[in-house]
Each structure stands twice: as C-alpha cells, then as structure tokens.
Amino acid sequence: MSRGGWTEQADGEPDALLSALGSKYSAEILCAAGTPKSAQALSEDIEIPIATCYRRIEELVDAGLLECEGRQLSTEGRRTNIYRRTLDEIEVDFSCEQPQFSQKRRTEAKNQLEDQLEH
C-alpha cells in the first residue's frame, strides 16, 4: 500500500525495528547517515565510542534502516564499510494488535543528489 510516497513495511520484525529505533544513539546515527559514512566518521560526528557505534550500526542494518553501500580506504589504508540510511521518514501506528510501520524510502536519485551536494 502506498500513499503520497509512503509505503507499508511488509518485511522485518516489528520488535527488531522498535528495538533498533529505541536504542540510545540510533536516531543520531540515522540522521548523520544521510550521506555515506564509515563507522569511524559516524562515531566522531555524534561523539560516541566506536564500539557503541558498531553495535548500533549492526542493529540498524539488521532492522533494515541502514545499509552498507560499499567499502573505501580509510586514511590508515584499511578497507572500511560505508553506511547510509535506507529511509528518510518512518511512521509507527500502535492502534492495531501489532505495530504497523509506514516509511518513505530514500530514492537513488536523492542519494545521488546529496552526494553531488556533499562534494
């Protein structure tokens, strides 16, 4: 079902999604990941320990809210994963027996535009 760019989320477990969204720093990571960033960059941007950042990234990836876009070389010459959020907005409806989620997924066109503006 779609309404004004919103789609009902059919995949994913509601408990996993709510848990990932409810974890400390998850919202900050999602906000910071509008453009592709490494875990180290996300950790520095929102000023959280790198181990915590990696745990939150794993939860967000498992919930389908963040995805690995590829790998790049770090300044130390190591290959690092680069992450970007998969959606811009999410709506949760608690009026049913189980929470229902609607989301506005990011389009590839929007990703490309933001990448161009970043450079």
From TrEMBL:
It holds the Pfam family HTH_20. It comes from the Archaea. Residues 105-119 have a biased composition (Basic and acidic residues). Signal peptide: none annotated. Gene3D superfamilies: Winged helix-like DNA-binding domain superfamily/Winged helix DNA-binding domain (1.10.10.10). Coiled coil: none annotated. Residues 99-119 are annotated as: Disordered. This is Helix-turn-helix domain-containing protein. It comes from Natronosalvus hydrolyticus.
